[in-house]
């Protein structure tokens, strides 16, 4: 059931953050634990209400308008960026929202294809636009699920629930430990002694290219071979005992998932204890597992992690996001965070020739609306 409030009939801007995942990769669609946090970079949609029932969408990069008739069923179109928006709008139409017409300009301080969930950010920003225009809202968890379904059905990416939940439930100063089976979320404080460094490899990825779906299928195959409901139900000892029944690829994928699920609460405990050595070791183990067993890293991401190990002030570093390019995330000492970023940037540029984008971020809040 949606909650009513006054619809906004004047210009406004809706923003939703990207997210970085501190640890817990490719565990969300395996009913595991994840530890993402919203970041201080956003997708923003500036809206001017119209007097008709058309939605006219533009991006800062592409001024060609995408026009949708809000009185008709909305369908995906090829591999357009607008599919993320189309899926969200159609999801709300199915929920009975009568969406008034609007002009929208979409901009971002969040790089696309960097593994920072720009897709979930645009989905949640558009969901916030629709709710603001209609004066009705879904419970936040339902908003997240609607956005996930839009990505499945319109963008063709069978993502888990982590990204949309992280964006919807972001809390300033906190990461979010999410149990992807029960969908219970616990806010985890980020100590002021550390900062989060996001380092874009410069290699763009597209999860719609098939490798992400292939990893999901390999995990599903492992589940069938093991006779369990999900890899969440498997321990390391179970996996070792059943190794002979699994093809080599499925064994490797399951080994990553089972280990990664265990690393999340261990990492949360390390943060609570301010045990930075242990936190760093867990991040390193996560990256090696993603690179070797899950095969979703790339040479550039591996190089960032290798270089980070030699930079003073970096506690731990790993790839973040779906993989196949994108970004690395590092936990760094707060009192020398800027210097640490510059040193890693210079080392990576010297090693690869890539003038990488990097930034420091605190844990940010979820979606927001500014009127006027």
Give me some keywords for this one:
372 residues, alpha+beta, Ribosomal Protein S5, domain 2, Alpha-Beta Plaits, 10 helices
Overview of the structural elements:
By secondary structure, this protein is an alpha+beta fold. The protein folds into two domains: 192 residues, Ribosomal Protein S5, domain 2, CATH 3.30.230.10; 172 residues, GHMP kinase, C-terminal domain (Alpha-Beta Plaits, 2-Layer Sandwich), CATH 3.30.70. The protein has ten helices and 14 strands. Strands 2, 3, 4, 5, 6, 8, 9 and 14 form an eight-stranded mixed β-sheet that branches. A four-stranded antiparallel β-sheet has the order 11-12-10-13. β8 and β9 form a beta hairpin. The chain is globular, with a radius of gyration of 21 Å.
- Rg to the nearest angstrom? 21 Å
The succession of helices and strands, N to C, reads EEEEEHEHEHHEEEHHHHHEEHEE
Q: Mean pLDDT, as a whole number?
A: 94
Strand content: 15-25%
Relative helix content: 25-40%
> Cα distance, first to last residue?
29 Å
Number of strands: 14
What is the highest CATH level, the class of the largest domain?
Alpha Beta
Based on helices, strands and strand pairing, what is the structural class?
alpha+beta
The name of the CATH architecture of the largest domain is: 2-Layer Sandwich
> Total helix count?
10
CATH fold-level label of the largest domain: Ribosomal Protein S5, domain 2
Instruction: List low-pLDDT spans.
Output: none
Architecture blueprint of SSEs:
Blueprint: E1 3-4, E2 12-23, E3 33-49, E4 54-59, E5 66-69, H1 82-94, E6 102-108, H2 118-134, E7 136-137, H3 140-154, H4 162-168, E8 174-179, E9 185-189, E10 194-200, H5 211-226, H6 236-241, H7 248-273, H8 276-292, H9 299-308, E11 314-320, E12 327-333, H10 337-352, E13 358-361, E14 368-371
Parallel strand pairs: 4-6
Antiparallel strand pairs: 1-7, 2-3, 2-14, 3-6, 3-8, 4-5, 8-9, 10-12, 10-13, 11-12
Helix pairs in contact: 1-2, 1-3, 2-3, 2-4, 3-4, 5-7, 7-8, 9-10
């Amino acid at each position: 059931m949606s909650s009513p409030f006054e619809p906004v009939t004047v210009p406004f801007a809706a923003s939703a953050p990207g997210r970085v995942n501190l640890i817990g990769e490719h565990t969300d669609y395996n009913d595991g634990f994840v530890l993402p946090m919203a970041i201080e970079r956003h997708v923003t949609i500036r809206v001017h209400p119209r007097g008709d029932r058309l939605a006219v969408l533009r991006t800062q990069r592409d001024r060609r308008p995408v026009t949708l008739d809000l009185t008709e069923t909305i369908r995906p179109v090829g591999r357009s960026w607008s599919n993320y928006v189309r899926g969200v709008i159609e999801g709300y139409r199915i929920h009975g929202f009568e969406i008034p017409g609007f002009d929208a300009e979409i901009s971002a301080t969040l790089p696309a294809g960097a593994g920072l969930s720009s897709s979930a950010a645009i989905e949640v920003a558009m969901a916030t636009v629709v709710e603001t225009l209609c004066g009705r809202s879904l419970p936040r968890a339902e908003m997240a699920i609607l956005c996930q379904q839009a990505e499945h059905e319109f963008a063709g990416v069978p993502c888990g629930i982590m990204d949309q939940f992280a964006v919807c439930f972001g809390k300033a100063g906190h990461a979010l430990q999410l149990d992807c089976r029960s969908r219970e979320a616990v806010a985890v404080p980020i100590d002021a002694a550390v900062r989060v460094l996001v380092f874009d490899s410069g290699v763009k990825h597209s999860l719609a290219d098939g490798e992400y779906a292939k990893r999901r299928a390999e995990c599903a195959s492992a589940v069938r071979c093991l006779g369990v409901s999900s890899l969440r139900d498997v321990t390391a000892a179970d996996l070792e005992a059943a190794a002979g029944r699994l093809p080599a690829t499925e064994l490797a994928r399951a080994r990553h998932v089972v280990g990664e699920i265990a690393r999340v609460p261990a990492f949360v405990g390390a943060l609570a204890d301010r045990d930075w050595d242990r936190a760093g070791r867990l991040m390193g183990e996560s990256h090696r597992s993603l690179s070797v067993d899950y095969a979703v890293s790339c040479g550039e991401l591996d190089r960032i992690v290798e270089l980070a190990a030699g930079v003073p002030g970096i506690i731990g570093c790993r790839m973040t996001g779906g993989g196949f390019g994108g970004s690395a995330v590092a936990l760094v000492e707060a009192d020398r965070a800027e210097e640490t970023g510059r040193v890693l940037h210079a080392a990576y540029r010297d090693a690869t020739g890539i003038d990488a984008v990097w930034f420091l971020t605190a844990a940010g809040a979820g979606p927001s609306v500014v009127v006027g």
